[in-house]
Design brief:
Chain lengths: 209, 209
């Protein structure tokens, strides 16, 4: 990989829950197929299991209290300062159940990456898998995109389709969506690490060879 | 195919333009892989090239004048009466640049089939391919669905994803979308002909074995 001659991409991971995508990123870093290093893990919830995963792998963590999060801009100022202090180059949202605001977005323009469990622009919002299932789509999938100041609206970096099999329960659909996430997300971060992801002037993303 | 012991599915085709999807259906009927017969082709425009294709294959055609179409409900009453007269069982919209209204929908509930050149519910409307291209999606596709009284909103029968390749022009995207249409649409009509397409009470579609 082209990153082999340069230093790993320094990332910060934002999460709120079990951290399965954090784990997928950690695993790919440890097996040498993702040229990144996790400089900081930020959790919006002190009881998030993702924090345990981070600590188990010796990663630095930051947990903000409910009181600080009560003012979203102030919270993001604190987070932005910590990301900067840790020399983070890209911010990876991994099950972070909050928006990122100007203090982070202005410090990391088109460098905050998010994952969505549907083929955007379909099924925005917090219940994408259930919504797609209820709609009865025959194809859904996963999107990796840059975050902006609107939910689920920034430039699309990568998408992967999933054929919904006849008779699947919503739980089965969810399991397959998550399996795609755990491959697509590290793969996409690796593209960024290789310097191959570029946002064009029109807001679309090109991937160079 | 299971239709081999029963009579072919009687369809009517509605079009407004060049009729490439009509041609795809005709070709599949003539090569024996689509167990349907086209009982009537309705064009909303007298100069539609699709009419020439229909006549070339000896199909009955109906063209309504602008004056009749000026009253959409009256136009659909005329069309519905003609479809019924020709014993049409399913109505196939194939580049028909108009909505179908109550007179047709009530005669053919969940039996009016439409094609959309995107993965619904993304990119509804008349410029789906361009809109998807401009949005910068990495995956788009084709949807076959039952029409209802809202644009591009009825139960989804089939979808097929298309990976947008780096560097494609919108014309290249369009070419690949149309190629998918010309396979997916006849395949889906064949599923209907085999009696395998069922709309559930919740408005989603199941395909039986």
């Amino acid at each position: 990989m082209s990153g082999s001659t340069s230093s790993p991409l320094k990332i910060g991971v934002l999460l709120s829950g079990s951290g399965t995508n954090l784990q997928a990123i950690i695993d790919r870093i440890e097996d040498g197929t993702l040229d990144a290093s996790i400089e900081l893990v930020v959790s919006s919830r002190p009881d998030a299991y993702g924090l345990k995963r981070a600590e188990r792998h010796g990663l630095q963590t930051l947990t903000l209290s409910k009181e600080i999060y009560a003012d979203p801009i102030m919270a993001d100022e604190v987070i932005a300062a910590e990301l900067k202090k840790h020399d983070v180059e890209y911010v990876i949202m991994a099950g972070y159940m909050r928006m990122v605001h100007a203090p982070i977005l202005m410090l990391y323009p088109n460098k905050v990456v998010n994952l969505h469990p549907a083929l955007l622009p379909s099924f925005k919002g917090a219940h994408a898998i259930q919504d797609a299932y209820d709609y009865g789509v025959k194809v859904t999938g996963v999107t990796v995109h840059f975050a902006d100041d609107k939910y689920d609206c920034g430039p699309i970096i990568a998408q992967k389709a999933l054929v919904v099999q006849e008779g699947w329960t919503v739980d089965e659909l969810e399991k397959h969506i998550h399996a795609i996430e755990h491959t697509l997300y590290p793969n996409t971060i690796q593209l960024i690490a290789e310097g191959r992801v570029n946002v064009r002037d029109d807001g679309t993303v090109s991937i160079s060879e």
